[in-house]
Design goal:
The complex is a heterodimer. Chain A has an eight-stranded mixed β-sheet with strand order 5-6-4-14-15-16-13-17, sandwiched between helices. In chain A, strands 8-2-1-12-19-18 form a six-stranded mixed β-sheet, sandwiched between helices. Chain A has helices spanning about 1-5, 10-15, 30-45, 75-85, 120-135, 140, 170-180, 190-195, 220-235, 295-300, 380-395, 440-460, 470-475; strands at about 65-70, 95-100, 115, 160-165, 185-190, 205-210, 215, 235-240, 240-255, 260-270, 280-285, 285-290, 320-330, 340-345, 350-355, 360-365, 400-415, 420-425, 430-435. By secondary structure, chain A is of the alpha/beta class. Chain A is globular. Chain A is about 30% helix and about 25% strand. By secondary structure, chain B is mostly helical. Chain B has one domain (about 1-40, about 55-455). Chain B is built from 20 helices and two strands. Chain B has helices spanning about 1-15, 25-35, 60-85, 90-110, 115-125, 125-135, 140-170, 175-180, 190-205, 215-220, 225-245, 255, 260-275, 280-305, 305-335, 350, 355-365, 375-390, 390-415, 430-450; strands at about 50, 55-60. A two-stranded antiparallel sheet of chain B has the order 1-2. In chain B, helix 2 (about 25-35) runs antiparallel to helix 3, helix 3 (about 60-85) packs antiparallel against helix 11 (about 225-245) and helix 17 packs antiparallel against helix 19. The two termini of chain B are about 25 Å apart. The chains are: A alpha/beta, B mainly alpha. At the A-B interface, strand 10 and helix 12 of A face loops of B. Chain A: Keywords: Electron transport, FAD, Flavoprotein, Membrane, Mitochondrion, Mitochondrion inner membrane, Oxidoreductase, Respiratory chain, Transmembrane, Transmembrane helix, Transport. Chain A: Required for the assembly of the mitochondrial membrane respiratory chain NADH dehydrogenase (Complex I). Involved in mid-late stages of complex I assembly. Chain A: It comes from Colobus angolensis palliatus.
Chain lengths: ~475, ~450
């Protein structure tokens, strides 16, 4: 009877109740039904939000022109430059998908935060120089009207790279390239070193290069938050979720040499919400892979690397996560406030942290000692056995240090040549990469973001030519390698 | 008349009873055959109505619009094939039934002799359009767009109903032929002014007039391709048609009641054309250009000279075909790149040269290149508005300049320039799409050779 009395739409919720389970009693629950009817009427009347469609406010939008997978500093930098370089305001819809809003495992937050121009590749030097000027003028770039200005806590103390006899020639040629590109670097002999830094033990050091300007370290969280605020104010959508699938279409085409290639195009990105099976298919025109340590998984989802090895189709994205430890110690007799970030000949490095005689540092393990990247647990024995001896050798005051704390972070390590991958994939035509920087992603993020945005909007790199960093090199076998890495 | 109405009604059972693989072929073929019927109404010796029946008739004002509506149905069906091919057969058939139902109401609206019948069918066209926009649109904003569309038009047309009933009570008949004979001259009292406003507002909203145009960009952008096509090509012309039908009974008042609307239209022309220059979304650009073109039609209808009516009708037909063609082109772009932004699909001429030709022709007709009918219409309207008042030439001339600017901007951004990397892999143009563009363009070109058939009541 109730079903016939109530109008169809209002009685919806009531028709699904099963009074048959309470067979014996006359339990119609009038109050519940009346309150449901009242709620229904209230939702239809004007003045309240209309819930005709299921509530999708927690899901990303159904359509976005550019989807950036990964919300770390590289992803946000690409989003920022896309919005900044579009010629009309509100032109491109950008969605940034980040799987962890707390950034607990992201390389950006766990980074040491250094910036230096002492690379051997001119492109790397130019990127770092641009980043230095970006950071210097960060309050002009990332100004948001309602927020206070950013305080990057930039310590311009420079980098000091030490070279032994066999590396000295390479260092000299590197410094020449750096000076050509406009970096302010100078070479120092062991005597000059001892003069300037009395705490250093120059045993085994033949030459050192010291960055005098635009080098140092800063707070990566501040840069991340600043980018995040600015990018949100420019109208970029954010979403916390995991990319589980790409829906794409492929087409067989012939190249000019009559070779058959299969070109793929991604149409939709399926973004799955945390702790639920719900996912939203986002229709998109361009996907940017800025997923850092997890870039290889995203590339595999798009079908990159599925093919016979040795062909362009079978070339995987050679980026994998590598765990690196950073230790913080206290040493009251340690080097003073002018201490640069010192990179020893053995690969160990340290820098000053704060004003209370604290230092942080670490060392890149060799290939055999690579820790398991499954989790971010710290191995303290590594410090005792592999790092401390070299530190103590280089800085005698560090013989009496006391480790306070330590953490581990991932490098998005490019196993091919330890330099970044930037630009479109030749076969999956609308996926762009901005990943694989193997430890210097944070310092090159502004420049790389701008390069990728230019590639998308203009079709080619305009300011800094990053063509040595394109994906093609993995197939052609041309390594763009640095002569000395950290 | 029955041959048109009945055959279109019979398209409905044909949709539901066709085999799944024959739906498109059946409907397109029969739609094309039905579109030949209005050709019979074109040969009229005088400007009396061809009285086919007491209720439905067709005169030189109606016939071009009827032809446009009938021609557009097979084009809409062809354009919808791609985005519907993944849906279940019953949803496909439902979509097509909505289009056919809309077609029936539109045909009868244009042919109605009695104004109440016209009004009822005018309102009836809202329902299938609303269903097409809200159910088959692309994004979540389509609900908002549908609501705007529905309520703007309804609010505008409710006073019209009241006024029509009052006039019926007053004059005894609302038959279009008798209106001119029995209408009394209106005086400038408050009630007659309100009568004028009430009659005209429905059509102003539908045209749309510049201040009431908010529903149009939303509805056009959120609608699927067939919805956009029919909205731009035909539904906007309902407003112009209605205005031209009602002006005989609103006679001397129009001279000064029309002033605010003329000012709004002239100003709105320039404003919406300028907004087009700043648009990034392709569909939004075409929607605003529709507002700009229809503003010219409003100016023409309100000035009420023979040449201006002629210009209005030619402009309506020309704009209907051009706008629909532009929406089809934008949709073919959208189906490939899944993005409506102009900036992300550039340099297409190297990839799809034939489509570049259709883009070129569509943009040329949009900017009213001689000798197309777009230019004929615009020229007549500009001339009559100049004779009404010399100052309007500033606005209309500036509008023609800005129209040329944004049309060329649209063309150059999408077709010329270097190709971006992410478009290198798109499907080449289908024959269906090329056919669609040709079927839009060929009436424009053929009519440019003989525009007298669409010149309306005074050839």
């Amino acid at each position: 009877m109730i079903r016939r009395v109530l109008p169809h739409g209002l009685g919806r919720g009531l028709l699904t109740r099963r009074p048959g389970t309470r067979r014996g009693g006359f339990s119609l629950d009038w109050d519940g039904k009346v309150s449901e009817i009242k709620k229904k009427i209230k939702s239809i009347l004007p003045g309240t939000s209309c819930d005709l469609l299921p509530d999708t406010s927690h899901l990303p939008p159904e359509h976005s022109d550019v989807v950036i997978v990964g919300g770390g500093v590289l992803g946000l930098s690409v989003a920022y430059w896309l919005k900044k370089l579009e010629s009309r305001r509100g032109g491109i819809r950008v969605l940034v998908v980040e799987q962890d809003y707390t950034y607990s495992q992201a390389s950006t937050g766990l980074s040491v935060g250094g910036i230096c121009q002492q690379f051997s590749l001119p492109e790397n030097i130019q990127l770092s120089l641009f980043s230095a000027s970006f950071l210097r003028n960060i309050n002009e770039y990332l100004a948001v009207t309602s927020a206070p200005p950013l305080d990057l806590r930039f310590n311009p103390s420079g980098y000091l790279l030490l070279a032994s006899e066999k590396d000295a020639a390479a260092m000299e040629s590197n410094v020449k390239v750096q000076k050509q590109e406009g970096a302010k670097v100078c070479l120092m002999s062991p005597d000059q070193l001892r003069n300037k830094f009395p705490w250093i033990n120059t045993e085994g050091v033949a030459l050192a290069s010291y960055g005098m300007e635009n080098e140092g370290w800063f707070d990566p969280w501040c840069l991340l938050q600043g980018l995040r605020q600015k990018v949100e104010s420019m109208g970029v959508f954010f979403c916390q979720g995991e990319v589980t699938r790409f829906v794409s279409s492929s087409q067989r085409m012939l190249t000019t040499d009559d070779e058959m290639v299969i070109l793929k195009r991604i149409h939709e990105v399926h973004v799955k919400m945390d702790h639920s099976l719900e996912y939203q298919p986002v229709e998109c025109a361009i996907v940017i892979n800025a997923a850092g340590a997890w870039s290889a998984q995203i590339a595999a989802l798009a079908g990159i690397g599925k093919g016979p090895p040795g062909t362009l189709q079978g070339t995987k994205l050679p980026v994998e996560p590598r765990k690196r430890y950073v230790y913080v110690w206290h040493c009251p007799q340690g080097p003073g406030l002018e201490t640069p970030l010192v990179a020893d000949t053995s690969g160990a490095y340290f820098r000053r942290e704060g004003l209370g005689s604290n230092y942080l540092g670490g060392r890149s393990p060799t290939e055999e000692e690579e820790p398991d990247p499954a989790n971010l647990e710290v191995d303290h024995d590594f410090f005792q056995e592999k790092v401390w001896p070299h530190l103590a050798l280089r800085v005698p005051a560090f013989e009496t240090l006391k480790v306070q704390t330590a953490w581990a972070g991932y490098y998005d390590y490019n196993t091919f040549d330890q330099n970044g991958v930037v630009g479109p994939h030749p076969l999956v035509v609308n996926m762009y990469f901005a990943t694989g920087f193997s430890g210097h992603g944070l310092q090159q993020a502004p420049g790389v973001g701008r390069a990728v945005a230019e590639m998308i909007l203009e079709g080619s790199f305009q300011t800094i030519d990053l063509s040595p960093f394109l994906f093609n090199r993995f197939y052609l076998g041309e390594k763009t390698q640095e002569n000395n890495i950290m | 008349m029955l041959k048109m109405v009945f055959s279109t009604i019979m398209l409905l059972p044909m949709t539901w009873f066709s085999k799944n693989n024959m739906i498109w072929i059946n409907l397109t073929t029969h739609g094309l055959i039905i579109s030949l019927i209005p050709l019979l109404f074109f040969n009229q010796t005088n400007s009396n109505l061809i009285n086919c029946s007491a209720h439905l008739s067709s005169d030189p004002l109606t016939t071009p619009l009827l032809m446009l509506t009938a021609w557009l149905l097979p084009l809409m069906i062809m354009a919808s094939q791609y985005h519907l091919h993944n849906e279940s057969p019953s949803r496909k058939k439902l979509y097509l039934s909505m289009m056919i139902f809309l077609q029936i109401s539109l045909i009868m609206t244009f042919m109605a002799t009695e104004l109440i019948l016209f009004y009822i069918l005018f309102e009836t066209t809202l329902i299938p359009t609303l269903i097409i926009i809200t159910r088959w649109g692309i994004q979540a904003e389509r609900l908002n767009a549908g609501t705007y569309f529905l309520f703007y038009t309804l609010t505008g047309s409710l006073p019209l109903l009241i006024m029509l009933l009052y006039i019926y009570n007053d004059l005894g008949s609302l038959n279009i032929m008798f209106l001119t004979l029995t209408a009394q001259k209106l005086t400038s009292t408050w009630s007659h002014n309100l009568l004028w406003l009430a009659c005209m507002m429905a059509f102003m909203v539908k045209m749309p007039l510049y201040g009431l145009h908010l529903w149009l960009p939303k509805a056009h952008v959120e609608a699927p391709i067939a919805g956009s096509m029919v909205l731009a090509a035909v539904l906007l012309k309902l407003g112009g048609y209605g205005m031209m039908r009602l002006t005989p009974i609103l006679d001397p008042l129009t001279e000064y009641m029309a002033y605010p609307f003329l000012m709004l239209s002239l100003w709105g022309m320039i404003m919406t054309s300028s907004i087009c220059l700043r648009q990034t979304d392709l569909k939004s650009l075409i929607a605003y250009s529709s507002v700009s073109h229809m503003a010219l039609v409003i100016v023409a209808s309100l000035i009420q000279t023979p040449w201006s009516f002629t210009g209005a009708i030619i402009l309506m037909i020309a704009h209907g075909l051009t706008s629909s063609m532009l929406f089809c082109l934008a949709n073919s772009n959208y189906e490939r790149t899944h993005s409506r932004i102009m900036m992300l699909s550039r340099g297409l001429q190297t990839l799809l040269p034939l489509m570049a030709f259709w883009w070129f022709m569509a943009n040329l007709t949009n900017l009213a290149l001689p000798p197309t009918i777009n230019l004929m219409g615009e020229l007549l309207v500009v001339t009559t508005s100049f004779s009404w008042s010399h100052i309007t030439i500033m606005f209309t001339g500036l509008n023609m300049l800005i129209t040329a600017l944004y049309s060329l901007h649209m063309y150059i951004t999408t077709q010329r320039g270097p190709l971006t990397h992410h478009i290198t892999n798109i499907k080449p143009s289908f024959t269906r799409e090329n056919m669609l563009m040709f079927m839009h363009l060929s009436p424009i070109i053929l009519l440019s050779l003989n525009p007298s058939i669409i010149m309306g009541l005074t050839p």
